[in-house]
Amino acid sequence: MADGLITRPTAQHLGGEPTPRHWRESLALRYRLTPWWARVLAIFVLSRVISTALLLGFARVQATNAWTVARPDYASFAKMWDGQWYFIVAQIGYSSTLPLTADGHVAQNQWAFLPVYPVIVKGLMVLTGAPFAPTAVVVSVAAAALTALVFFQILRRFLPEGSALFGVVLFCVAPLSPLLQVAYAESLFLLLLAASLLLLLQRRYWLMLGVLAAASFTRPGVVAFALALALHWSHRWLTRGRDPFPVRDRVTVAVVAVSTAILGFAWPAVAAIATGRLDAYTATELSWRADYIGYGRLLPFTSWVQGANWWFPGGSGIVFLVVAIVLFGLFLVSPWARRLPIDLRFWVASYVVYLLAVFFPQSSTFRVLMPVFPLLGALAVPRSKVFRVALVVVAVLLQWVWLYYCWWVDGYDWTPP
């Protein structure tokens, strides 16, 4: 008896061995006492073990290619593709003269790769003396871990803790999650995006603008956030009867939305000033689709039509495109997706509209869709163990599929990640 309470004897008190039930109770107690951030980081670390094993498996069978020798080490394998462009930016920066093809078109060059990520990597290289590839991987992994932490905080606002943790699991094992640990800017951009979305949900608009300013020089797409903010303003205005929208907030959101739109065009403006060519950035971006449809001008909302006709000639591509857009819209209004705060759905819809306006669909499409990761919260709503296990298994299998088709180089490779 202690303090007037009778304690229940355990196996240890009776001198016996712990039973399976006691082990389960002990583990459950330890789990409840574990801080949320430790649970998220444990999920992240375990997911990195899986993705690292897959990457190393492909590295062991990688033949000599344009970026590496045969059987490269992890860091070299992680620096392929766009990683080489970020390496060039970190080493020499940007040229004031755009390279041209033999027929006078702007050739592929580093102006397509924004500076925040390579500048951070370069700074750490100077501080530590470490080479680019391992430093870039460290920056990517650290940013991805922080993204998982912020994403949990977003999900926890509208999901039970267990579902929010499963949403983090889906983020960490998603088919393209190996990109979170290579020399790409995706991890850093997702971190800045997740922080911006959390600040939007908290209605801390001015602080959000500062984060978006950094994001606008990390990856393209911030201009879509201006549309999301416009939708946010409109929604708050329409619902002001039950959710006050004072004049101060109206002005703040409007100013932040306009500022975000300007930030979305800041890097193209920098490229234009530095090179003396108004279309320096867009011409550079268009050079990547020239292998598919040749050189041309950027006409908003025509790229997906061109891509649909290129991939599926004869009109079937247009049908496929329309069906895909309709199915996506139906998912956004499904019961699972409606569990997401409307501001997250505003962001997802705005970003997809942005992609429809400017992006040409090819093998990088899956990568540029990574910013719609808040939708993983919708897939975390069902609590069926069978459903959850199946999702994780399928996601890991698709990691292998993506690495096989888009990262690993097998001779002439026309499926860049």
From TrEMBL:
It is a multi-pass membrane protein. Pathway: Glycolipid biosynthesis; glycosylphosphatidylinositol-anchor biosynthesis. It is found in: Endoplasmic reticulum membrane. The chain crosses the membrane at residues 36-59, 132-152, 164-185, 205-231, 251-274, 310-332, 344-360, 389-408. InterPro entries: PIG-V/Gpi18. Its main location: endoplasmic reticulum. Keywords: Endoplasmic reticulum, Glycosyltransferase, GPI-anchor biosynthesis, Membrane, Transferase, Transmembrane, Transmembrane helix. This is Glycosyltransferase RgtA/B/C/D-like domain-containing protein. It comes from Frondihabitans sucicola.
